[in-house]
């Protein structure tokens, strides 16, 4: 295919030149011929009016542009990190599932995928309120956004859509993650956190309540949030409970839900911390034939006995040590009493021991100082007693001392047996399990330690995605807000796992920060053609795209 000039002489002697787009071909006899595809008209008019536009349009389709054709550059918008997030969620078939639901169940006419993509990308890239998100959109280029008409009301409608179809969408993400990484779900790790609100204006049936705050904001109402992860640290399910929900009361509901959604749990071990441990929950797990590794409090009578034995067996405090004891346990299933053996395993860390001992000394010194400070006050002895008791309670030391009033001072006497018991637990953590002897005690400890990945996920949830504080007040919007953060956790967990699998020691945050340097730049040519260009991609960025399983961004992706 090529351009051809065609000249024809007029009687006046003037030569008329036109431009044609032609192509070569062979006829049935195999002879070479040409045929006209398009007439551009007179050469002078074509050169003045259409040639530049044609060249610019062809270059734009190729993703190229000649610098001498440019008249001006426009804004440069963040693109690389948003492209990565979009491609990950697309690979997880998240957006495809949204389109399926939209086609079959709703009459939403606006760009639903575009709005949800904006909500998730903003939560990962630059967490803000929905109103601030509209300003953020002016600084970024979202891939495959069908329309620039994103508005506040449609963002809220998109949140309502998400939470209405939460289970189906969450299951789609989990199924995709398990399939992509060929995960067997050998262990499920469950833990909880809380997130507070800036307002205390409540309704009678409000999900926001006062409760135990992990943020040390007991003055604020909150919700509690549970997350289930694989042993690789990838979230597969989440739950939002009223703010006054005790951790221990959620375990049975979560285990039942996970079992219903992911099949037979007989081969899957439940791993959770001591906050979920109660006789009732242990009985529930045993009666359902579930295997488990759970944290155990060091203050229980059985725990103190086992820790005492472990300290006796231990040779020194300078190296790690693991101690195990098997204890018979009675439970009941359908009115029938049964007996099993539970494995109690104590693990000692010398560094933790040193830290615990140092903190203990500091706490005792602080207490002596506070005791002296209160006793010299010119107030009634009963008030001194009350203030000291309150201080001990707030510092978790109320069981360490006996207080009494003698004259105008408070006398404090340490409970030596209690203090000895506290010190006996320094450097140790205790777990119990019903796993078979195919798992040695070191493997049980290693399995339990993996729970830190859930705690790491909560830190990401609170800090990187700014889940707190929340300004929503209706239950469905609160749940939708948490769901958005959860989706962000899934996408970034996939990125982080792939970086690790590729041997790249980098967090997902640093990875996306590097990709954020890839910009989409607006330009206008001298012929009036508007277009986009992508700045040069470095070797390091290409390596990161390969590692996380994303193609290198091109203009065709815009």
UniProtKB/TrEMBL annotation:
GO terms for biological process: DNA transposition. Signal peptide: none annotated. SUPFAM superfamilies: Ribonuclease H-like. Residues 227-487 form the Transposase IS4-like domain. GO terms for molecular function: DNA binding; transposase activity. It holds the Pfam family DDE_Tnp_1. It comes from the Bacteria. This is Transposase IS4 family protein. The lineage of its organism: Bacteria, Pseudomonadati, Deferribacterota, Deferribacteres, Deferribacterales.
